[in-house]
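Section 5: illustrative case.
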């Protein structure tokens, strides 16, 4: 009897929590679009790292803690990239990472679709957003896809502008594996 209880208590943590996954840093995993002079400007970040706990059968145990390297911002124009890395925008020397910490996951009422409370931190400023995402099973993990909109000025990114929109749509297309 003691052996059975011992084995149960040793293995229980593996069955009571969501599985631990690590995001794969691939092209377009974390991207954004913002209007500049009336046209959409696309960009992306690399250096995706962190942990994602997810199991659709134990959704309340799910969470996310990921970061990207702010200095990897890429918009297709080197001069603009250098400008965005400066202190008026991302100030990457002082704030080298952008983080997303997600908690409180619940079903969105559709198959494989969920809503997570996500705390985004940019330049030392944190704001909370609802992040609706899909989670499609993949070999050894899941493919997550979702987006949210934020106001860049809430994070002290740039200043008021007649040509650059305040709203930025952030898109996440992340493969996470064990």
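Designed sequence:
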């Amino acid at each position: 009897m003691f052996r059975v209880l011992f084995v149960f208590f040793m293995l229980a943590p593996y069955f009571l929590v969501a599985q631990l996954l690590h995001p794969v840093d691939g092209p377009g995993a974390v991207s954004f679009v913002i209007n500049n002079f009336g046209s959409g400007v696309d960009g992306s970040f690399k250096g995706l790292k962190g942990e994602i706990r997810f199991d659709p059968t134990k959704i309340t145990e799910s969470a996310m803690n990921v970061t990207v390297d702010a200095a990897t911002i890429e918009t297709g124009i080197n001069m603009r990239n250098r400008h965005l890395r400066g202190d008026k925008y991302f100030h990457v020397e002082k704030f080298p990472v952008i983080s997303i910490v997600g908690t409180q996951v619940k079903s969105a009422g559709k198959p494989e679709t969920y809503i997570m409370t996500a705390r985004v931190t940019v330049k030392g400023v944190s704001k909370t957003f609802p992040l609706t995402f899909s989670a499609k099973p993949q070999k050894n993990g899941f493919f997550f896809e979702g987006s949210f909109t934020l106001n860049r000025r809430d994070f002290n990114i740039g200043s008021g502008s007649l040509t650059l929109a305040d709203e930025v749509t952030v898109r996440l297309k992340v493969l996470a594996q064990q």
